[in-house]
Amino acid sequence: MEYSVKVDAFEGPLDLLLHLIQGLEIDIYDIPMADISEQYMLYIRAMKVLELNLASEYLVMASTLLAIKSRMLLPKHEESWEQDEEAFEEEDPRDELVERLIEYRKYKQAAAELKEKEQERGSFYTKAPVDLSQFEAQKQDSLEDMQIDLHDLLGAFNKLLRRKKLKKPMSARISRQEVSIEKRMEEILSDLRSRRAPSLFHEMFPVTEKPHMVVSFLAVLELMKRNEITIKQEGNFSDILVEAFEGVNLVAQP
Amino acid sequence: MHNRKFDAVIESLLFAAGDEGLSISQLSAVLDISMQEAEIEINTLKESYSEQHNRGIHLVELAGTYQLATKREMTPYIKKLVESPATSTLSQAALETLAIVAYRQPITRMSIEEIRGVKTDRPLQTLVSKGLIKDAGRAEGAGRAILYGTTHEFLDYFGLNDLSQLPPLTEDLDGADGDEETDLFFRSLQNSLGEEALEDKE
Amino acid sequence: MHNRKFDAVIESLLFAAGDEGLSISQLSAVLDISMQEAEIEINTLKESYSEQHNRGIHLVELAGTYQLATKREMTPYIKKLVESPATSTLSQAALETLAIVAYRQPITRMSIEEIRGVKTDRPLQTLVSKGLIKDAGRAEGAGRAILYGTTHEFLDYFGLNDLSQLPPLTEDLDGADGDEETDLFFRSLQNSLGEEALEDKE
Question: Out of A32, A66, A95, B67, which residue is the most buried by the measure of CB atoms under 10 Å away?
Fold first, then answer.
């Protein structure tokens, strides 16, 4: 099996080290170098086993760890006249590493807080500005007066991508499926027949919901085309009357 | 019966729906009330907007949907806002449009509107009149719609030698969510380590 | 002194400005009042929005401007209605890089890489393309390397009013954030590779 997946399980060697320190519950100011290098090497080895794309920084860190470890194993120069000064420990070979770890950890923590803020910000909605270009055109500014740069352009684009969109109307879609034209034709026809007297045109639209009204209208047109109903109007602006033809019993299927 | 507690929810829904508007059926679905009730709720809210003189927006009904809009008597103030020197000359709408033209040129107005989700004729006009974009040919097909592209002034203004110097738009440069990858990593690692460790031991 | 008649005007201006935001100086220009007065006006309005339980929107301060936004408790309802675009949230690498830029700006790529201990060109590219950071000058010295800084959009994206609202950097890390899966993996790794590792040492 091939593992060509590029994996960023850790954000680099410092991240990995922090993880190890935490996992081993050791004091970051007093890192047991032998343990930590051993664990670190285990990870490196594991990543190699998986043929993961191991960034060169991991290897550099590996050699740094080994170097520190060996420096700590070296016997201290104990020249007799310096013995009293042991309290003044000579510089700890780990210092620089610890400093880097602590510095990195600050920003890793800050990144976590930014992530929280990112989510929080995503949970409320702002709106797009009203298009005010109609007033803009009247504003006579030279290009030089515009205080914008490329980053404003990118920022605006990012904002656009973040903007929420209205979901496709859920209930409208459902109701359209609920009433088919065929079904509506049957309804209208049986309605008209049961009345035996002409109906007013607006009575064809009992539900004032757009999809339903459209379906009703199409149903009326189709019924006219098939000569199932007839439509009359006495004069301009008088009521439009709808009536079923006599003697037709079925809505013919197309 | 009007239920005051819905007012806040309806207002937020109208606000979020924006120009696309909110229909009675959407409202009834979200609030889980009947269409009749939804209609009563929204009409009561509509009245209360127009009655309150400390409100600058009201509820308008357009093509069967409801949306928030600024009250008509506020127009002079809004005009003043745009004309004020404190307002940058290029509105958000124009900036967005410019960004889309810059990165997707040549592009028709329709395609821009698809991306932005709103009418874009005015921002296009503004940008053309400022000389930042121009008519750059005609699209294939029936409509032969105008294709827009950026101008020399655009490059000048943003200090670019040519379009290749625009910062790359890397929508997903960093790939998918890190977590998934991590999981994948650990699962595959465990699998392969299991085998290998055994082999080595032998 | 608060002038109630301004409430309606300010609301309409805020509504029109949308996520572009309205600044104190714009408000003072439109209403023809001093900046101090404008600030009082808008803050009074801000309070009244949050006090009124029949309002679904309120006033937030973002990136140095005021904007209308839906109240947080409305989110569940709005989620039923609108869809958030598939906004890929920022990757861990991008977030770390952004954190460093935010706290240490202006800063060069090299300095960022020193802190992170890894190459950082891709996260930087992503952040520039999203308009979250920008070229903010050149460093002194031979290379004249690009200095990076955060943008207006950065503040907006994280819901901050200005940089002073960034959470303070802490040296001490309280509480383990190690995810269990990693630890689980780690233990099994120790088990399976433990012996082998010892062999290697010899």
Answer: B67
Inter-chain touch C7–B174, beta carbons under 8 Å: no
Q: Does A51 touch chain B (CB under 8 A)?
A: no
Query: What whole-number distance in Å separates Cα of residue B186 and Cα of residue C181?
Result: 8
Q: Which CATH number fits domain C84-198: 3.40.50.1220, 3.30.70.1560, 2.40.70.10, 1.10.10.10?
A: 1.10.10.10
**Residue for token pair 């004249």:** C144
Phi, psi of A127 (to 5 degrees): -115, 160
Contact C77 B7 (CB under 8 A): no
**Where are chain C's structural domains?**
5-73, 84-198
Long-range contacts of A215-218 (CB under 8 A, 24+ apart): A215/A176, A215/A179, A215/A180, A215/A181, A215/A184, A216/A184, A216/A188, A218/A181, A218/A184
Per the CB < 8 Å rule, is C151 touching A155? yes
* Rounded CA separation A18/A102 (Å): 9
Provide the shortest C-alpha distance from residue B187 to chain A (in Å).
11
Q: Which two tokens stand for residue A84?
A: 């009293």
On chain C, the residues whose CB falls within 8 A of the CB of A111 are 92, 95-96, 98-99
Whether residue A145 lies within 8 A of chain B, CB to CB, comes out as: yes
Q: Are strands B57-62 and C57-62 parallel, antiparallel or unpaired?
A: unpaired
* 3-state class (DSSP) for residue C147: strand
Contacts of C129 in chain B (CB under 8 A): 167-171, 173
Read off the pLDDT of residues C9-34 as tens digits, 9 standing for 90 and up.
Answer: 999 999 999 988 999 999 999 999 99
- HSE at residue A220, side-chain half, CA atoms within 13 A, is 21
Residue A29 CB contacts under 8 Å (≥ 6 apart), including other chains: A98
Verify whether the Cβ–Cβ distance B92 to C123 is below 8 Å: no
What does the pLDDT read at residue B198? 39
Cα–Cα distance, A184 to B68 (Å, whole number): 34
Is it true that B5-73 and B84-198 share their CATH fold?
yes
Chains sharing 3 or more CB pairs under 8 A with chain C: A, B
pTM beyond 0.90: the answer is no
Q: How confident is the model at residue C185 (pLDDT cuts 50, 70, 90)?
A: low
Mean pLDDT computed over A101-128 = 89
| The CATH number of the domain covering residues in C5-73 | 1.10.10.10
